[in-house]
Write a structure and sequence with these properties.
With 239 residues, the chain is an alpha+beta fold. It is built from 3 helices and 13 strands, in the order H-H-E-E-E-E-E-E-H-E-E-E-E-E-E-E. The protein has a 13-stranded antiparallel β-sheet with strand order 6-5-4-3-2-1-13-12-11-10-9-8-7, covered by helices on one side. The protein is globular.
């Protein structure tokens, strides 16, 4: 009987602890949303347009991002007269990367497409996470940042670090398929600024590190929210 009572007590304690963890994770997510500007303002964002300057392996060039929430994402980066294009829609994706021998538009591999679907939301996997089918686990703290593990509907895991003071995301760690191999990709965010008249904060500096092999540093020069964007720009050109 004592053993049964002890087992029941441990089970109840585990359930209670799980509930606390989930509640704490939700509190962090809610504070993150509030830090960006609040749910009401985020819901009003239909498009985002960015003009950036990116540098990689000693080369620097302009890049643009066009995003229609839930519909399409397209990034065009120019380096040494060569254009790298990544485009994702709610139906598929394509890319152009002359530096890897793909100088004409090619369909995105399935695994890469699954990893890129998150680009369709400008506020990442924490925003409206339950509606997206994402699961969130709080894995404690790393320095002054809360460490959240997000598992999406395709069972892809991403770790996000949320600053415990500002509640902005400072780092995202994920995996990606690059040139036939899986590597860890670490993106760090900084220099958050409010974009008016939307009243929403965006990071104006970020760096993407691909498994320590190379990195891309980007400075955002301009952001426009709810600019008219023609959705046909996301279509893959026909050869």
């Amino acid at each position: 009987m004592k053993l049964v009572k002890m087992s029941m007590a441990l089970l109840l304690a585990a359930i209670s602890f799980s509930g606390i963890q989930a509640q704490t994770a939700d509190e962090i997510v809610n504070k993150y949303i509030d830090a960006l500007g609040g749910k009401e303002k985020l819901q009003q964002v239909k498009t985002v347009y960015m003009e950036n300057t990116s540098s990689a392996m000693g080369n620097e060039g302009p890049s643009t991002i066009n995003l229609v929430t839930g519909v399409g994402f397209k990034m065009v980066s120019d380096f040494n007269g060569q254009s790298v294009i990544i485009a994702v829609t709610d139906k598929g994706g394509w890319q152009v990367n002359p530096f890897t021998g793909a100088s004409s538009p090619t369909a995105m591999p399935d695994e890469m497409l699954k990893q890129s679907k998150g680009r369709l939301d400008p506020f990442g996997p924490l925003y409206n996470y339950a509606a997206k089918g994402n699961k969130i686990e709080l894995e404690g703290k790393d320095g002054n940042a809360f460490k959240l593990k997000v598992t999406n509907a395709d069972s892809i895991e991403t770790t996000l670090y949320v600053d415990a003071t500002t509640y902005f995301i400072t780092k995202v760690v994920s995996t990606a398929q690059m040139m036939g191999q899986t590597m860890e990709v670490t993106t760090t965010f900084s220099n958050y600024k409010k974009v008016d008249p939307a009243g929403i904060f965006f990071p104006y500096s970020y760096e993407i590190n691909y498994g320590g092999q190379f990195s891309i540093t980007t400075t955002v020069n301009k952001i426009e929210v709810n600019k008219t964007i023609d959705p046909t720009i996301f279509d893959m050109p026909k050869s």
